[in-house]
Amino acid sequence: ELHTNLFAGRFAAAPTISTAVQVTDSNDKVLPLSGGEVVDIVSYTGLKVGFEYEISGELMTADGASTGIVASRVIIPSASTNSDGVVFTVTKEQAERYAGQKLVVFETLTMPSDPGRVVASHRDLTDAAQTFSVAAPTYAIGDVVWIDADRDGVQDAGEKPLAGVTVRLLSGTGTGVLKTTTTDANGRYLFDELAAGDYGVQF
């Protein structure tokens, strides 16, 4: 039995979208804990020129849970193939909630004139182009170096701080020097922006 498609070539290819996420002011796609803007560049093909579409995005965790962080944009394409950006504004509170995690952008394309119909979507948890990271929390180690005349571990009145003392930050095993600094005029030293872990201090 022979079947002939009498309509072959009459219909345009189905619309498609792909995305590439960017983090404002970060070439490494790392969002600071202070929050900021995440811009998802949505590239599309096969859209109808002059028709209204809506791109709706949502940030997801790496295991597919919703963060509740959403953004959308209405577009009227001037060409069937083009790209537009969807901007997510992430607050400090939201960034801290997902500190140290990877987030993935999901996008869905619809037409307001046809509610409920999904024209195209891109929802791939394994797509590196859709993925960015939230900075991990950092920690600090610091104290004061002074002449402990009575050896009680407490800086008493009259026990002067020591300036210019070399202080080394050691790895948790004590086998490597990670950073070096010197105490200031008040005997203070500080190692900041440290990842969680075990460290040692050597004078």
Q: What report would you give on this structure?
A:
This protein is mostly beta strands and 203 residues long. Helices cover 3% and strands 47% of the residues. It has one helix and 14 strands. The strands form four sheets. Strands 2, 4, 5, 7, 8 and 9 form a six-stranded mixed beta sheet that branches. The chain has a three-stranded antiparallel beta sheet with strand order 1-3-6. Strands 12-11-14 form a three-stranded antiparallel beta sheet, with no helix packed on it. Strand 7 (102-110) and strand 8 (118-122) form a beta hairpin. It is rod-shaped and about 80 Å long. Residues 1-11 have low confidence and may be disordered.
Note the main attributes of this structure.
14 strands; three-stranded antiparallel sheet; mainly beta; 47% strand; rod-shaped; 203 residues
